[in-house]
Design goal:
globular, 2 domains, 9 helices, alpha+beta, Glutathione S-transferase Yfyf (Class Pi), Chain A, domain 2, 243 residues, Glutaredoxin, four-stranded mixed beta sheet
């Protein structure tokens, strides 16, 4: 079975958390919106799926995953759906619930990172809310980055199976997601992130181990890995780190 990932073709965004899981597991998938329109792919195909009036359970926004007749939305839910098949989650219900809790906490931080450059409204340009963004980013750098990273450090430190993974003794989708979160924070707020990571050595070690996984490393070197830019969630505006 080949999965269809539907996400915007020019940014990593929330779709990147799903790409990393698919790549790390060696799963077969098509990044639909990055395909050719004459091959019934591209952004028009994404929009057709998103706005299909025949869908009984309509998704709200990309990313979307299509698995045969099943369409799943929301990053955390997509990862939860994929993980058993991709062998990126433990078997016990308790471990799966804990894994999802960590993923939702990552999602909270992703939203807060996005809101540093769009604190008033997502529909306004960054340039229309710069004073508010400066204030929001200062709070994020001073308080929220260290608070979240300290929590992830504690999760690793308290894992009964050892400190190499967030859950249990083997790779799970939240390890991949924490890698991506650190990558994004380092791009958007390099100084504040490194200051906080200096107090979270287990997070740094996990990040580095994920980056060295053969399939992940190959993906990071490939053209499939889009670069960060100022249209995605993690944006580098130096003035927002000036406080």
């Amino acid at each position: 079975m080949t999965y269809e990932l539907h996400y915007w073709p020019t940014i990593q965004g929330r779709g990147e958390f799903i790409r990393l899981a698919l790549e790390a597991a060696g799963a077969s998938y098509i990044d639909i919106a990055r395909g050719r329109e004459d091959a019934d792919q591209g952004v028009p195909a994404l929009l057709r799926l998103l706005h299909d009036s025949a869908t009984a359970q309509p998704p709200f926004a990309p990313p979307l995953l299509k698995d045969g007749s099943v369409v799943v939305g929301q990053t955390a839910t997509i990862l939860q759906y994929l993980a058993p098949t991709l062998k990126l989650v433990a078997r016990s219900e308790q471990a799966r619930t804990w894994t999802q809790q960590i993923q939702l906490t990552i999602a909270d931080m992703v939203t807060e990172a996005h809101d540093t450059h769009h604190p008033v409204a997502a529909g306004l340009h960054y340039e229309e809310q710069k004073p508010e963004a400066l204030r929001r980013a200062g709070e994020f750098c001073r308080h929220r980055i260290p608070k979240f990273l300290h929590w992830f450090e504690n999760v690793l430190n308290r894992n009964p199976a050892g400190q190499r993974h967030l859950v249990g003794g083997r790779l799970s989708y939240v390890d991949l997601s924490l890698f991506q979160l650190v990558e994004g924070l380092r791009y958007a707020f390099p100084r504040a992130t490194e200051d906080s990571l200096a107090k979270a050595p287990l997070v740094v070690q996990l990040h580095d181990r994920v980056a060295e996984l053969p399939r992940v490393a190959a993906y990071l070197r490939s053209e499939r890995r889009l670069p960060f830019n100022e249209q995605g969630i993690f944006r580098r505006y130096p003035e927002l780190e000036s406080l």
